[in-house]
Amino acid sequence: VRAIWNGVNFMSRGHKIYHAPKWLKQLMPPGRALDGELHSGIGNFQQVTGITRHLEPNERDWAQVTFQVFDIPEMELVKQPFSDRLEILKEVVDETCRKWEHLDIPDFCPKKCPLQYTEQIVVKNMNHAYQLYKEAILKGAEGVMLRPPDSIYEFKRSKHLLKWKPVLDA
After folding, report:
1. CA 140 to CA 19: how far, in whole Å?
2. What is the DSSP letter of 155?
3. How many Å apart are CA 45 and CA 165, to the nearest integer?
4. pTM here?
5. Which of 23, 45, 62, 141 has the highest Cβ tally under 10 A?
6. Three-state secondary structure of 5-43
7. Separation CA 28–CA 31 (nearest Å)
């Protein structure tokens, strides 16, 4: 489920709040914006949709969810190239996850930090892109996202961010 951490809450692109448990919100960096997906594994879209839909979070269900981040849409950074924002994002994720083992969290929570940096791959050519796409699809992913390393962040659908998937759903 696509989500933005706005420094206080997880929100949809339509500004709907996803009511996460307190222990997860305690982990997240206050006052920082992160763009990513609330994720519970490949092929589990319906599961994570159900988990995030509740107004009162089920903490045990949320323990299955990670926040896979791939951008940092803060106002002072949005005009910087994507590749530069990724370096800042890595630092924010590393710093945030160092807190995870020191937080007072329920026993049923995962040992691994639920905030996860999404590794980016520089595509060499169209054959390389197709190989990565095919591998992702065979693993059960719905597709891949393509973005130029020098692109700025846009708070809308962008011609600089292409979703490549086998089924046209737009």
Report:
1. 27
2. S
3. 15
4. 0.89
5. 62
6. ECCCCEECCCCCEECCCHHHHHHCCCCCCEEEEEECCCC
7. 9
